[in-house]
Design a protein that fits this description.
This protein is mainly beta. It has one domain (5-45, 59-176): Deoxyuridine 5'-Triphosphate Nucleotidohydrolase, Chain A (Distorted Sandwich). It has helices spanning 5-15, 23-27, 115-119, and strands at 18-19, 33-45, 49-50, 54-56, 59-65, 72-75, 80-90, 106-113, 122-125, 134-143, 149-152, 156-165, 188-189. The strands form three sheets. Strands 1, 2, 5, 7, 8, 9, 10 and 12 form an eight-stranded antiparallel beta sheet that branches. It is globular. It starts with a helix and ends with a strand.
Length: 191
């Protein structure tokens, strides 16, 4: 079941699900999701590797950071960037009560692009966020269009939608991306 933005704000007050929300999202979110904003932008370079038990991501170089006063990046046609949110997510590792009188459930979050991105030729790629994850979220943006695209830091670019999980899980997220890490520093074992 998808939770409304109003319900997420109620749960946020009780469980601290989200940090660094914009004033708009705290007071007047739209529909069933919470909008996320661009905080940092990274360019990747070098080779990556994904094996059965080890992995190595390409190097990630920060090219813009809202905390450093950066205002905007341009994504050229064919360019691929990683974008990290201003907001942090804190999905409980244990079941929570979503509605009084209902059974406790886990929460998972899915992320969707704001439609302006696709209308501008920008491909957005995200993953789900499992129970137990905490930190900023990192997504991929690729310019598949034929023109340059300017992206302002602080702009709302993604929408976070929360779902209840029915049933138990074997274990909560404890992976190596915990805390908003963007890239590996070297080849490493996978959890």
């Amino acid at each position: 079941m998808i939770l409304s933005a109003k319900k997420i704000l109620e749960l946020n007050a009780k469980y601290g699900l989200l940090e660094n929300l914009s004033e708009r999202e705290k007071s007047n979110p739209e529909g069933v999701g919470i909008d996320l904003r661009v905080g940092e932008v990274y360019r990747i370079s070098g080779e990556g590797y994904l094996g059965e038990s080890e992995r190595k991501t390409p190097d990630a170089t920060k090219i813009a950071d809202i905390k450093a006063g950066d205002k905007e990046v341009t994504i050229n046609p064919g360019e691929f960037l990683l974008v990290k949110t201003i907001e942090s997510v804190n999905l409980p590792a244990e079941k929570i009560v979503v509605e009084d009188g209902a059974s406790a459930t886990f929460l998972v979050a899915d992320v969707h692009p704001r439609s302006t991105l696709q209308r501008c030729g920008i491909y957005f790629r995200a993953t789900k966020t499992d129970p137990g994850y905490h930190g900023e979220l990192t997504f991929a943006l690729a310019n598949l269009g034929g023109s340059k695209f300017r992206l302002e830091l602080g702009a709302r670019f993604a929408n976070l939608v929360f779902h209840q999980v029915f049933g138990d899980i074997h274990r909560a997220y404890g992976g190596q991306w915990q805390g908003g890490r963007v890239a590996t520093e070297r080849k490493e074992k996978q959890n």
